[in-house]
Amino acid sequence: VPPRRAYPLYLHRACAAVGARDPRDAVVKIFNTRQRPGWTVPWQDQPVDSSTGSGAIIRAQFGRGGSVRFGVLTAAHVISDTRYLQIQRSMDRFSGEKYRARVAAVCHEIDLALLLVDDEDEALAG
After folding, report:
1. What is residue 125's three-state secondary structure?
2. How far apart are CA 5 and CA 115, in angstroms?
3. What is the pLDDT of residue 4?
4. What was the pLDDT predicted at 96?
5. How open is the CA angle 28-9-19, to the nearest 5 degrees?
6. Pseudo-torsion of CA 49, 112, 123, 14, nearest 10°?
7. pTM reported for the whole predicted model
8. What is the rounded distance in angstroms from the CA atom of residue 49 to the CA atom of residue 81?
9. pLDDT at position 77
């Protein structure tokens, strides 16, 4: 009897595309520095706070026949009201190295967001 795979085959292929040996290596931690709007007094700035969340590295093609890039898929509530985003690969959690990210697309109705990393080659594929 062949051994059962711990993860579906498509996860292994997706992780191999980003150089991950294990599907868990495709998980990133997202650091969000945010400033929520002041609904009661909109002329005053609200305090800046921070939050964290998680995301998964994906490979996406932009436009018909466009370039293929790596991005991070996460929940929209993780990046809401963002002022500054950083990601940290799960396999680098002891190094403390973080990479600057920006929001490429967000849809709050379905709670999904796509992030692009400024230094993509080093941050996601390396």
Report:
1. helix
2. 30
3. 42
4. 76
5. 40
6. 150
7. 0.74
8. 10
9. 94
Q: Is the dihedral of CA 114, 108, 110, 55 positive or negative?
A: positive
User: Tokens 């909109």 — which residue?
Assistant: 42
For the chain, residues with pLDDT lower than 50 are 1-14
- Over pLDDT 90: what percentage of the chain? 35
Among 115, 118, 32, 111, CA closest to 79? 32
Which residues contact residue 77 at a Cβ distance below 8 angstroms, ignoring those fewer than 6 apart?
53, 108, 111
> Residue 107: what pLDDT?
94
Q: What tokens appear for 61 in the block?
A: 């093609």
* 123: number of Cβ within 10 Å: 23
- Within 10 angstroms of residue 50's Cβ, the number of other Cβ atoms is 10
Which pLDDT does position 122 carry in this prediction?
66
Tokens (6 digits) for 32? 């969000």
What is the residue type of 10?
A: Y
